[in-house]
Amino acid sequence: MNGKWEVVIGLEVHTQLATNSKIFSGASTAYGAAPNTQACLVDLGYPGVLPVLNAEVVRMAVKFGLAVNAKVASRSIFARKNYFYPDLPKGYQISQYELPIVGHGELFILDDNGNEKRIGITRAHLEEDAGKSVHEGFGEHSGIDLNRAGTPLLEIVSEPDMRSAREAVAYMRKIHTIVRYLEVSDGNMQEGSFRCDANVSVRPRGQKELGTRAELKNLNSFRFVEKAINFEIDRQIALIEDGGEVVQETRLYDSDKDETRPMRSKEEANDYRYFPDPDLLPVEIDDSFIEAVRKTLPELPDAKQQRFTNQYGLKTADAEILTASRAVSDYFEQVAEATTAGPQVAANWVIGDLSALLNKEGIEIKSSKIGAGALAGLLDRIADTTISGKIAKDVFESMWTGEGSADEIIAAKGLTQITDTSALESVVDAVIAANPEQVAEFRAGKGKLLGFFVGQVMKETGGKANPGQVNRIIKQKLG
Amino acid sequence: MPLTKLEVQHVAMLARLQLEDRDVDDVVAKLSRIVEFVDQLQAVATDNVLPMAHPLNMSQRLRADDVTEPNQRDFVQQNAPSTKEGYYLVPKVLE
Fold first, then answer.
1. Which residue spans within A137-209 are E strands per DSSP?
2. E strands within A164-239?
3. Using CA atoms, how far apart are residues B76 and A40, in angstroms rounded to an integer?
4. pTM higher than 0.90 for the full model?
5. What is the rounded (10 degree) CA torsion for B84, B90, B92, B94?
6. In degrees, to the nearest 5, what angle opens at C-alpha B55 toward C-alphas B51 and B57?
7. Which of A6, A237, A378, B85 is surrounded by the most beta carbons within 10 Å?
8. Per-block average pLDDT, block size 10, for chain A (479 residues)?
9. What does the domain layout of chain B look like in residue ranges?
10. pLDDT tens per residue, range A144-154
């Protein structure tokens, strides 16, 4: 990055609230329905209908507000944001403007130097989503599906506190983690439940006032956020250094070309003529409601990470990975509480072998084919030296394919570790007798050959010997 | 304060109203009179008055998060000039 320039980024994260019905109507929000089968008269803006606010949407917005230490507005109002677009049936979007439901808040990320950094949240407001335009398959027409119209969104607006694309991604990930912990959104980016716009500007380092910003629209993956912002930073710096000027505009990120370009439809300056929606009354929230919601707050990721390092003695990096998802952290805790193998062993298995298999098969930990109790049972057998860590990996795979519990598989396949010293000694004797050359070299000082002998014994025992014990016996015999 | 020609044309464009050149002066004059009429309200002292968001002194009623609306696509699409495979068809809009 160019040291002369300072980058300033603010994000607007749109998160779809995980309700059953829409924000102002009783139509379903289920994803993937046939086009226009979940768009009712309210969503379509038919004359004579009235929007009625979904109570669950209010509860979820308040829950988010409390989680980011924000002031929840005792009174908030809905406003009409007026513009024309084919996927906006009413000609306006119901949103919030002057009095949003959630006011100033904050969260913490790690900055580029690994230090904790506060990112201010300006506000979070409720609004309805628009429909979807499909451009393929309709000749010179576009097809409009209004199922998404009226889906509840919480738009979370940050302060311009981020100074690199990486920080922007860290902030977005934090919001993503929080909304999933709170269970106010599924955060599914493929389905558009979680997306963001980025306001990006650059200024000479040391300058107080902000440079002119460009708004990058509809970034729907963490990778695209980073790439789009980095492209935009380079574009703006090159433009200014060539004597040009950044114009305030809305730009669309094209992931195929990895570039941003101006959006034609947004060329006319944003002039949405907001005014209070006369169809909706002010939303009033009293303290007892806020306190009732506060009682439903789960332990949040930062607090849980701290607890995992204190209570279980986990490495910070491991605690961070385990707490990025509530389901993963719950699973880990169940294993750690149930096994005698210790929390770090539990953490290693959840982060390592289990995550690898889940990723490979593309399934969530909630649907893991090995439950937390079953994994704990396996780790117990390592802890009491019934099996080696190496054999445990084979047992783990057998458990995954449904061959039974760890104990059942160990019994059925006869995998119990040979710990009987006299039995191991006779195997070691046989290996020594069969490899006189290596024995001579080892005795002459080639210590590296110890591994060779251990390997031979492990091979002879089908991996069932305890490598540490084998080591000791060989050293004794050859020492 | 009288409106400018440019303001009126801008508002017409935002509202997607077709405004013929020969009509602009007339509309500017009429709209300006409306704005001036409403501007009289600026003379009222409102320093200690809370902004009113709605004429009814009530708060918003909330509904339970239940799906109550059935699929009425075939019914409502009878009103659409053109549909295909369940989609509404519109002139191509591409970014």
1. 141-145, 152-158, 194-204
2. 194-204, 214-219
3. 9
4. no
5. -110
6. 85
7. A378
8. 86 98 98 97 95 98 98 96 92 95 95 89 98 92 96 98 96 96 95 95 94 91 95 95 91 89 67 92 96 96 94 92 93 95 94 93 91 94 85 92 91 80 86 89 86 88 81 84
9. 20-45
10. 999 999 999 99
Specify burial of residue B91 (Cβ count, 10 A radius: 0-12, 13-18, 19+): exposed
Please, are residues A212 and A247 in contact by the beta-carbon 8 Å criterion? Answer: yes
Summarize pLDDT for A287-315 with one digit per residue, the tens: 999 999 999 999 999 999 999 999 999 99
Instruction: Considering only the beta carbons, identify the residue of B56, B66, B95 that sits closest to A281.
Output: B56
The beta strands (E) that lie in A205-244 are given as 214-219
Please check whether residue B61 touches A, CB under 8 A.
yes
Which residue type occupies A373? Answer: G
Test A141 with B64 for CB contact under 8 angstroms: no
What letter represents residue A400's amino acid? W
Q: Which two tokens stand for residue A76?
A: 């908030």
Partner residues linked to A133 by β-bridges: A144
- Render A31-42 in DSSP notation, one character per residue: TTPSTTTT--TT
Strand-pair partners of A276: A79
| Among candidate residues A369, A330, A334, A333, the one with its CA nearest the CA of residue A353 | A369
Do the chains contact at B87 and A143, CB–CB below 8 Å?
yes
Secondary structure element (H or E) that encloses residue A459, with its range? helix A449-460
Please name the residues in contact with A153: beta carbons below 8 A apart, sequence gap of 6 or more.
Answer: A14, A15, A16, A17, A23, A126, A127, A128, A129
* ipTM of the complex in this document: 0.91
CA distance A175 to chain B (A): 24
A119 phi, psi to nearest 5 deg: -115, 125
Q: What is the residue type of A382?
A: I
Q: Is A162 helix (H, G, I), strand (E, B) or coil?
A: strand
pLDDT of A414 reads 79
Cβ-contact A96, A127 below 8 angstroms: yes
Q: Strands (DSSP E) along A55-110, which ranges?
A: 75-76, 79-82, 92-95, 105-110
Flag whether residue B13 sits within 8 Å of chain A, measured between CB atoms: yes
Of B54, B72, B87, the CB nearest to A282: B54
- In this complex, which of A44, A77, A85 lies closest to B53 when CB atoms are compared? A77
The sign one gets for the Cα dihedral A227, A232, A237, A242 is positive
How far apart CA A205 and CA A416 sit, in angstroms, is 65
Mutate to test the interface with B, among A141, A259, A261 (most CBs of B within 10 A): A141
Instruction: Give A405: exposed, middle or buried? Use CB within 10 Å, 0-12, 13-18, 19+.
Output: middle
Cα–Cα distance, A422 to A426 (Å, whole number)? 6
Task: Sheet containing A141-145: give its strands across.
Answer: A132-134, A141-145, B87-91, B83-84
C-alpha separations of A186 from A19, A107, A126 in Å: 10, 20, 17
Q: Contact, A199 vs A206, CB < 8 A?
A: no
B69 secondary structure, DSSP code? P
Q: What angle in degrees, to the nearest 10, is found between the helix axes of A449-460 and A467-478? A: 120
